[in-house]
Amino acid sequence: MRKKIVSILIFAALLNTGHAQSYHNEWIDYNKVYYKFKVGSFGYDGVQEAPLNKGLVRINQPALAASGLGNTPAEQFQLIRDGVEVPVYITKPSGILSSSDYIEFWGEIANGKTDKDLYKDPSYQLSDHWNLETDSGTYFLTVNPSATNKRLVQTDNNVSGVTIAPEKNFMYTVGRYYRDNITQGFGLFDVQNLYSSGYENGEGFTNRAINNYSQQPQTFSNLYLDTSGPSMI
Predict the structure, then answer these.
(1) What is the pTM of this model?
(2) Tens-place pLDDT, residues 155-185
(3) pLDDT at 216 over 50
(4) 46-77: per-residue pLDDT in tens?
(5) Phi/psi of residue 12, each to 5°?
(6) What is the per-residue pLDDT for 170?
(7) Residue 213's Cα: distance from chain center in Å?
(8) Do β-strands 84-86 and 77-81 pair in parallel, antiparallel, or remain unpaired?
(9) What is the pLDDT of residue 177?
(10) 18, 38, 152, 176: which has the fewest C-beta neighbours closer than 10 Å?
(11) CA-to-CA distance for 116 and 133, rounded, in angstroms?
(12) What is the mean pLDDT of the chain?
């Protein structure tokens, strides 16, 4: 009897683990139609020739009409990226768009967050800044008439009546995420280099090799130190 109880408990634990696994498609509403498109890159970084991560993306009304969305009211458009709704700006807040109207949003190229589940151990990933498969970020435009969809609203920056004193400083994090080389992770080295086909420890984008004779100093410009503020850590 004890062996049977143990077996049942093990089976229940495995069943719970299976249900807990995420496939990143849980956001899909199968009653909706999704229009898939890709964005990026937005130019290149002059320092390391890496693609710029972000940029403004515009979808003109003629493109919407060509996809069968010409008669969709502006308030019903919804944009999804990586299972999360993306706020958009639409030149017309409600009603049918004219040929001069458009949708705009702040687009981003693919990142490495979706790569994390591919590693044998998530801690093996060097950085989730770059995607190992593609630079193109995938977006899904759909029609959602039953919700208040997220919007970016144009607002005048009028501070004439504001009595709150401006902040003297703020904390800002700046970083450089190298993309000069790619390390293959775990491998065996005999007659030739053989690497594991899995996502291994240390696999990812890095800078070039450095040593005592070939260093790689980095300079960050336009950083202004507030000497009267708290010390940086």
Answers:
(1) 0.80
(2) 988 888 888 888 888 877 888 888 888 888 8
(3) yes
(4) 666 788 889 999 999 999 999 999 999 999 99
(5) -65, -40
(6) 82
(7) 37
(8) antiparallel
(9) 87
(10) 18
(11) 12
(12) 85
Using CB atoms within 10 Å of the CB of residue 125, give its burial: 0 to 12 exposed, 13 to 18 middle, 19+ buried: buried
What would the DSSP string read from start to end of 65-116? HHTT-TTSBGGGEEEEETTEEE-BEESSSSSB--TT-EEEEEEE---GGGGG
What was the pLDDT predicted at 51? 86
Q: What are phi and psi of 183, to 5 degrees?
A: -90, 145
Beta-carbon contacts of residue 132 (< 8 Å; ≥ 6 apart): 112, 115, 182, 199, 203, 204, 205
Residue in this structure with the two tokens 């049942």, named with its chain if needed = 8
Strands 89-90 and 102-108: antiparallel
Tokens of 71: 């008669």
Q: What share of the chain is helix, strand, coil (3-state, %, to 5)?
A: 15, 25, 60
Measured distance CA(116)–CA(132) in Å, rounded: 10
Q: Which two tokens stand for residue 177?
A: 């995420």
Look at residues 132, 110, 137, 109 and name the one whose alpha carbon lies nearest to residue 183: 132
**Tokens of residue 1, six digits:** 């009897």
